[in-house]
Amino acid sequence: MSVKTGKPLPPFGIEEIKRCIPHRDPMLMLTKVVAVGEGWIEIEHHVDPKASFFEGHFPGNPIMPGVLIIETVAQAGAMLIDLTCEIDPKTQFMAFTSVDKAKFRRPVKPNDIVCVRLEIARSRGPLYKFSGAASVDGQAVAAVDFSASIMNF
């Protein structure tokens, strides 16, 4: 499973990411694709200190909501599939089918750079099971196992 012909080779940033997956602000959670290999990907997300969710989560002690950390890990999966499988981003996308396990280790703060390493645990047809780990400054912040499927728009 290598990067498909015509797809960008890592490292690359937001503009190339937007050509691969349908997510857009405020829900685009990937800032940079760092590396891609056989069944795995590494990405970064720079946590914008002006993100609207910080206004209410939590005033005076802003932290990134856990559900958005899960979304960041899931978007890494969508990116991996787009880069390495036959998927047309104009007509197809990856959609969650389940979150099997999510564990949070420490909070993610404004201006943190969340690093995600995600692997395909297994696949069958359009259904994929993924295992991902998120860290900040080398410290674990979350581990997420989830399933997603290639869907048509």
What does this structure look like?
By secondary structure, the chain is an alpha+beta fold. It is built from two helices and six strands; from the N terminus they run αββαββββ. The protein has helices spanning 14-20, 66-84; strands at 32-37, 40-46, 92-104, 113-124, 127-136, 139-152. The chain has a six-stranded antiparallel β-sheet, covered by helices on one side. The protein is globular, with a radius of gyration of 15 Å.
Strand order of the largest sheet: 1-2-4-5-6-3
Helix-strand pattern? HEEHEEEE
Figure out the total of helices.
Answer: 2
- As residue ranges, the low-confidence spans are none
Give the DSSP E fraction (strand runs of 2 or more residues): 35-45%
**Structural class designation:** alpha+beta
Shape: globular
Number of strands: 6
Average pLDDT over all residues: 94
Give the terminus-to-terminus CA distance: 25 Å
Topology:
Layout: H1 14-20, E1 32-37, E2 40-46, H2 66-84, E3 92-104, E4 113-124, E5 127-136, E6 139-152
Antiparallel strand pairs: 1-2, 2-4, 3-6, 4-5, 5-6
Give the gist of this structure.
The chain has 153 residues and is α+β, with helices and mostly antiparallel strands. It has helices at 14-20, 66-84; strands at residues 32-37, 40-46, 92-104, 113-124, 127-136, 139-152.
